[in-house]
Design brief:
Keywords: Membrane, Transmembrane, Transmembrane helix
Protein name: MFS general substrate transporter
CATH superfamily: MFS general substrate transporter like domains
Radius of gyration: 20 Å
Shape: globular
Structural class: mainly alpha
Helix content: over 70%
Number of strands: 0
CATH architecture: Up-down Bundle
GO molecular function, one term: transmembrane transporter activity
Family: Belongs to the major facilitator superfamily. Monocarboxylate porter (TC 2.A.1.13) family.
Membrane topology: Multi-pass membrane protein
Strand content: under 5%
Order of helices and strands: HHHHHHHHHHHHHHHHHH
CATH class: Mainly Alpha
Length: about 425
């Protein structure tokens, strides 16, 4: 598993952890296009890679971040006879495939198959969205919206992660920050487009409009994105001995439980706003974009502070605040309260998504194993994403909103506790290094 193939929620913020060794590897590796080994650190071609990566994030994690809007529509209209739990499997499968397939396609990227991954992934996400517009039954939506788009996103995730860091040195953080913001922006744009168009032109054409937008952006990516260097060597896909380290093991446990609970409000806030908050369906559709807007800032500001405090030290309080907000969700039943909740939860949960990649770097003994360990961590995150929202839907059906909210909060509390143990276990190592 290569450094470039380290595949979040998620998520996309892996760009933030692009290691300095990428630049060193680039200087030792032949370019596929026989270009100079000198890193450009700017220029038209380099910034076009940022544009391409931004659009890939927008159409992978951005689509996943938009699923809450579709969840509400599916439950209220297209799949009204299907339970919330079954519907949320669609988004869970999509997110899980992005992470797990992204890990598996890493070696393909390392072997030089970037353009195949980009082309196949672009076709699958666009084709999946077009096919979703024709769906009338649950199995059809699962196949198109869940599996096809999920597989395509998994193919695109590695290119979106790997390209930018090879074109920049001193401007790397700024460039990668711009690219990573595409994930949250997609979670703002697509729900609004769907909410505005669906009542006017119907589900089919509203979804096709989104598919056409995706097609245009994917064509731009194919046109502008170019590989500058390939990794000098392949890395292992797994490192079992890593689980002998308590900090790393507890952190992965925290990843599993954190992602199990993290996306529950993202999937269900629209339904909650209409059923408990008294909102109209048209207004409830905007709760998800508001939550994603808060997440934009939650993926930038705490990351800036984490450079000074350490990523795990910043992640711990934000995870616990997210859990506290999940408990507060129980008492919120009016429109202003739900809006404020969406902003705050989006901010702090966005932090929980953005900081784990850099945390893995801090928990790794050397940069040579970061890529492998990142893939292992994302596997646990993917499993959490897969089961979390469907379980929440089953709880909602049998025990109502209180049970779902408690499940969300307890999962994030367990995640925070596990990461606290990881932090305490890491202290002796830090003292030994000092």
């Amino acid at each position: 598993m290569s450094m470039s193939s380290a595949s979040n929620n998620c998520p996309p913020e892996i760009l933030e952890m692009a290691p300095a060794s990428d630049a060193e590897e680039a200087s030792q590796s032949p370019s596929p296009s026989k270009q100079s080994n000198e890193i450009p650190n700017g220029g038209l071609k380099a910034w076009l890679q940022v544009l391409g990566s931004f659009l890939l994030f927008l159409n992978t994690w951005g689509v996943i971040n938009s699923f809450g809007a579709f969840q509400t529509y599916y439950k209220d209209d297209l799949l009204r006879n299907v339970s919330n739990s079954d519907i949320s499997w669609i988004g869970s499968v999509q997110a899980c495939l992005l992470l797990i397939v992204g890990v598996a396609t890493g070696p393909l990227f390392d072997a030089g198959y970037f353009y195949i991954l980009l082309t196949v992934g672009s076709f699958l996400v666009v084709f999946g969205m077009f096919m979703t517009s024709l769906c009338t039954e649950f199995w059809q939506v699962m196949l198109a919206h869940g599996i096809t788009i999920g597989l395509g996103s998994g193919c695109l995730f590695i290119p979106s992660v790997a390209i930018v860091s090879t074109y920049f040195t001193t401007k790397k953080s700024f460039a990668t920050g711009i690219a990573a913001s595409g994930s949250s922006l997609g979670g703002i744009i697509y729900p609004i487009v769907f909410a505005r168009l669906q009542p006017r032109i119907g589900f089919g054409w509203a979804t096709r409009v989104i598919a056409f937008l995706m097609l245009g952006m994917m064509l731009v990516c194919i046109a502008v994105m170019r590989v500058r260097v390939l990794p000098p060597q392949k890395r292992r896909l797994l490192e079992p001995r890593a689980f002998l380290e308590v900090p790393f093991t507890m952190f992965n446990l925290g990843e599993f439980f954190g992602f199990m609970g993290l996306y529950i409000p993202f999937f269900y806030v629209g339904s909650y706003a209409t059923s408990k908050g008294g909102m109209s369906t048209s207004l409830a559709f905007y709760m998800l974009p508001i939550m994603n807007a808060g997440s934009v800032f939650g993926r930038i500001i705490p990351n800036f502070l984490a450079d000074k405090t350490g990523p795990l030290n910043m992640l711990l309080p934000c995870a616990l605040i997210s859990a506290l907000l999940a408990y507060c969700w129980i008492a919120i039943t009016d429109t202003p309260g739900i809006i404020i909740y969406c902003i705050l939860y989006g901010f702090f949960s966005g932090t929980f998504v953005s900081l784990p990649p850099t945390t893995v770097v801090s928990l790794s003994p050397s940069l040579q194993v970061v890529g492998t360990r990142m893939g292992m961590s994302f596997f646990f995150a993917g499993l959490g994403l897969l089961v979390g929202t469907p379980v929440a839907g089953a709880i909602l059906q049998s025990h109502g909103w209180l049970g779902t909210q408690l499940f969300c909060a307890c999962c994030v509390v367990v995640a925070g506790a596990a990461m606290m143990v990881a932090r305490w276990a890491k202290v002796p190592t830090l003292m030994a290094k000092a």
